[in-house]
Amino acid sequence: MSEFSDRIEKVSISGIREVFEAAGEDAINLGIGQPDFAAPEHARRAAIEAIKDGRADAYTENKGIRSLREAIAAKHERDQGIERHPDDIIATAGGSEALHIAMEAHVGSGDEVIIPDPGFVSYDALTKLADGTPVPVPLRDDLTLDPAAVEEAITDDTAAFIVNSPGNPTGAVSPPEDIREFARIADEHDVLCISDEVYEYTVFDGEFRSPAEFAETDNVVVVNSASKLYSMTGWRLGWVHGSSRRIERMVRAHQYVQACASAPAQFAAEAALTGPQGIVDEMTDSFQRRRDIVVDGLEDIGLTVPTPKGAFYAMPEVPDGFVDECLERGVIVVPGEAFGANGDGYARLSYATDEASLHEALDIMAEAYDAVV
Ligand SMILES: Cc1ncc(COP(=O)(O)O)c(C=O)c1O
Fold it and tell me: Does the keyword Transferase apply (predicted)?
């Protein structure tokens, strides 16, 4: 018997961390995937009041406080016209835990999970931790996930496929016809679609749609989170919604790994969802301005970059040695292969940083580019 599980030996610390550790202290960090805004004041206040009143001291229901789940249900009805009973929602420790329990509930030993490549680092790792096998699917040239490629990758062993639009690390937004296709594929092949919608509110071009709007079966579960919707990454509050039978399976994992999401964070997220929504437009407008700065700057350097339509990432094709040159000159960008083998030859830039730093970083990237071509 070996000391550590085969599962844990199959995953390693994310390549993103390694890049941070290699960078100097005053480097401009275009590596971090989190909004650079303050959380809404009313969300902070709600948590403080709940703490002061003693409402946040005890475990909550496993699925989360009822009023938060009602707020989440109301959000999805308002935004997507999806009617979800509050009992069919679990508040989780971020979208991360929501993805984890979705995998635990649906992926068995040897099952395959189709994931976008390049894609968010957790998809590969969480599949392996569930004892499944990741099946990476390359993206189209515009970095969207091709429904035909997903359909082709389905085998008798496929437990699930993951859709992430707007996407990390790409910033790509799938068009509504593709989202509709993902729902059809989930229905027709009787395979689960895990739709990771954590960047739902950050769309500049095109529109956000959810496969859950179109599916005729219950083969879609949706992961979302206050992290990117409301700039609340540190609060660790996300959720998953799906049919009763799927939620009932997911809560079995949730109750043992988490018991319940942090109570103060639940009160804060409820206030974020039900209070003034000004932060959403403010962040989107600001990210769009920064997207334009970054795309124009990268094109001026001579790099090819599909214009990101959402989230706050750009993924240019970069020459060999570019990422290291940037690091050496004090700009952190993440090598594309940290997000999957097909990310090789790309770099991910997060533009969730101030405009002055972005301009400075672009000047340095131009020097890095000249040094390697
Ligand atoms: C695509 C995607 N899904 C899920 C998450 C998890 O976010 P959190 O656990 O903070 O909600 C992230 C975080 O970067 C992400 O980029």
Answer: yes
Nearest to 300 by CA among 365, 350, 371: 365
Question: Based on the number of CB atoms within 10 Å of its own CB, is 255 exposed (0-12), middle (13-18) or buried (19 or more)?
Answer: middle
| For the chain, percent of residues with pLDDT exceeding 90 | 94
Sequence letter at residue 350: S
Q: What is the DSSP string of 326-342?
A: HHHTTEE-EEGGGG-GG
- CA–centroid distance, 297 to ligand 1, in Å, is 27
Q: How many CB atoms lie within 10 A of CB 234?
A: 11
Ligand 1 atom closest to the Cα of residue 237 is 11
Give CA–CA dist 251/56, Å, rounded. Answer: 21
DSSP classification of residue 172: -
Is residue 14 over pLDDT 80? no
Cβ contact 127:115 at 8 Å = yes
Q: Whose CA is nearest to atom 4 of ligand 1?
A: 95
Q: How far apart are CA 140 and CA 127, in angstroms?
A: 23
Give the phi and the psi of residue 334 in degrees, each rounded to 5. -105, 130
Band the pLDDT of 349: cuts 50, 70, 90. Answer: very high
Enumerate the β-bridge partners of residue 92: 238
Residue nearest to atom 14 of ligand 1 (CA): 33
Is the pLDDT at 360 greater than 90, yes or no?
Answer: yes
Quote the tokens at residue 123: 């998809």
β-sheet bridge partners, residue 313: 350
Q: What average pLDDT score do residues 141-152 get?
A: 98
281-300: average pLDDT = 97
Helix 94-106 crosses helix 121-129 at what angle (to 10 degrees)? 40
Q: Within the chain, what is the greatest distance between any pair of CA atoms? A: 62
3-class DSSP state of 317: strand
Q: Which residue ranges form the domains of the chain, and what is each CATH number?
A: 6-37+278-372 (3.90.1150.10), 41-274 (3.40.640.10)
Ligand 1, residues at Cβ distance < 6 Å = 33, 94-96, 120, 164, 168, 196, 198, 225, 227, 233, 238
pLDDT digits (tens, 9 = 90+) for 23-77: 777 899 999 889 999 999 999 999 999 999 999 999 999 999 999 999 999 999 9
